[in-house]
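INTERNAL TRANSFER SHEET
From: sequence group
To: structure group
Subject: diguanylate cyclase

Please process the attached sequence and return the structure record in the designated field. Keep the field labels unchanged so the import script can parse them.
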Amino acid sequence: MTARILVVDDIPANVRLLEVRLLAEYFEVLTATNGPDAIETCENGKVDVVLLDVMMPDMDGFEVCRRLKSDPATSHIPVVMITALDQVSDRVRGLEAGADDFLTKPVNDLQLMTRVKSLVRLKSLTDELRLRASTTRNIGIEELLSRNFASEDTAPKVLLIDERKSSVERIQKMLLDRADLDVIGDPHAGFFQAAETSYECVMIATAFADFDPLRLCSQLRSLDRTRFVPIILLAEEGEEERIIRGLELGINDYLMRPIDQQELTARLRTQVRRKRYNDQLRASVTQTIEMAVTDGLTGLHNRRYLDSHLQTLFDRAVARRRPLSVMITDLDRFKSINDAYGHDGGDEVLREFARRLRKNVRGIDLACRFGGEEFVVVMPDTDGAVAEKVAERIRAEIAQKPFAIGADGKTIEVTVSVGVSSVLKGVDTVAALMKRADLALYEAKSGGRNRVVAKAA
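Return from structure group:
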């Protein structure tokens, strides 16, 4: 695992010590001795994790962290605050400033490296989502990144897996009105509960009588539905090795008992904020993909999707020696509808036609808007004779029932011409299949419209 780590400390010896440790793990190391230089480096360079000292002159680490997290261009960079301060209030202050973690000097080597590696993995995921989102279309990503998810009114839905009643009661009291908390005592039942419910964080206690909590962490990380759910380990004093192993397995954070309420809520808020941020990016990427292959007016797939998917359906049909048919439909005299009722009226007709088309084909059929007033339906496992009957059913459905236009409900007669073709045994291609359907459509149009023509060869 390689990454670029920025070390920020005004004492050169401290910078050098961390630099040597990181270089030994083959990280690329950048350094800064003050807050403004650190901010400039983050703005101008590719930084994966910031190791930030708190006690610096002029601008302390808390202020540097706040500025990085408030800037959409740098808010996604994980920040680990490192300080000699060992008060809970200081850790909470750092987490509230937006820090992703907080380590106390002298820093344990294993804790440092597992923290850094965990945050590098998280940063890599975020970078991939940001890249997909920004390269597909402009989704308002800067506005998204600048949101403060921690301040949202909705309480996070959290699962606590802990078999000790006294511990559960304390945590329930700490998170009262701060989280929608579910509690499971049995770790096996907890796993299924986490898999079946959409949680924004799972907290797992380590003090089970006869169960390894890290096995549960590993199972949650291996399941698709829970792979990205933040996990916080609630550990006992002296369990450093277990914590380190947990971080290597993919837990996001941990708390040592006795648990402080402020630190618990601050760390929970940090994990939920990051999860909501990444969930928003994933949703934006999914929406972008859907918009790229969907016709905005009719809701059918568009030509881009047809061009990429028809070849797959064709190859599958040929390989399995199964029939496949295509129909191309064209609304008759559609230009006159646009001329008489405007493009709004034309759009209403197209939407209603798409609705009727969808109603008359199967779920496995691929219905697409080919362009303008032309539509294509690809019908797997359908021979020419059946496809011709389907096309005739669609033609009749359009012709028999007038289309309503405008707020006054005025109706007009609409007809459609259809060309049908099927895959030929022997040598055939997608281009030839579509060409035959197009020629059949031309014959239907030139032969008087409002008819179906099937082209066998």
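Handover comment: The two ends are 58 Å apart (CA to CA). The longest strand covers residues 324-331.
Transfer complete.
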